[in-house]
Write a structure and sequence with these properties.
single chain, alpha/beta, Rossmann fold, de novo design (two linked rop proteins), 7-stranded mixed beta sheet, 11 helices, 7 strands, about 50% helix
């Protein structure tokens, strides 16, 4: 098995689904608009700058899941997919995925964004394997806590190593596509690292390391 692994936000998508979910909750009046918008934007800046405390952020981001019934959450998510996510989808991303499928590669998304937000996105992209941050679910209701290791920075390597061990697979010949310097630990581990529409820090690292640089923006 040859893995073709993809970051999601600002890589396969022309935008950040996690930040967009926060914006959507503000627009729908689910959360306090001013307070939530400021915090959401602040955490996103910290992420872009490589300064994000992932557990602090998740303590904020998972609270709306814990405060509402699953039926309401699923209805909001369906609207979110049409309003926010569909416009982020890129024709070139679909073509890249098809290219790897044609080569017989096994496709995977690995993302720091939580599974509640990303699972339907992976389904639309027809990618079976998803490693995402797992919000804790007890008796059909989210608790606001994280289950296990968040798949962020070195956590992506940890989670992927666990998956490889469970599936008796290796990273031999693997590809990994990402836009973010936060993914440098995993980019360094694969045989075929690719910087996709990279942030300035990743672009510099990619050029110094001789990694491929490409764009999926339509």
């Amino acid at each position: 098995m040859t893995l073709a692994i993809f970051d999601l936000d600002n890589t396969l998508l022309a935008g950040d689904s996690d930040h967009a979910w926060g914006q959507f909750l503000v627009e729908e009046g689910v959360v306090d608009a001013e307070e939530y918008r400021k915090a959401n934007d602040r955490f996103y800046e910290e992420y872009l700058n490589g300064e994000l405390d992932i557990l602090h952020y998740l303590g904020f981001a998972l609270q709306p899941l814990a405060k509402h019934d699953m039926g309401d959450l699923l209805a909001w998510r369906e609207h979110f997919m049409e309003k926010k996510v569909r416009p982020m989808m890129q024709n070139k991303a679909f073509r890249l995925l098809d290219k790897h499928r044609a080569q017989g590669h096994t496709l995977m998304i690995i993302t720091a964004t939580n599974r509640f937000v990303t699972e339907p996105i992976a389904a639309i992209l027809d990618i079976e394997h998803l490693i995402a941050t797992e919000p804790e679910l007890v008796n059909g209701r989210y608790t606001g806590e994280v289950a296990g290791v968040p798949s962020f920075q070195d956590g992506k390597v940890t989670r992927l190593d666990d998956w490889l061990a469970s599936n008796n697979e290796t990273l031999e010949g693997a590809w990994f596509y990402s836009d973010s310097h936060n993914d440098a630990p995993l980019l360094r581990k694969v045989d075929n690292p690719v910087a996709v529409d990279p942030d300035p820090t990743l672009e510099k690292l990619a050029r110094e390391s001789g990694w491929k640089i490409m764009s999926l923006r339509d």
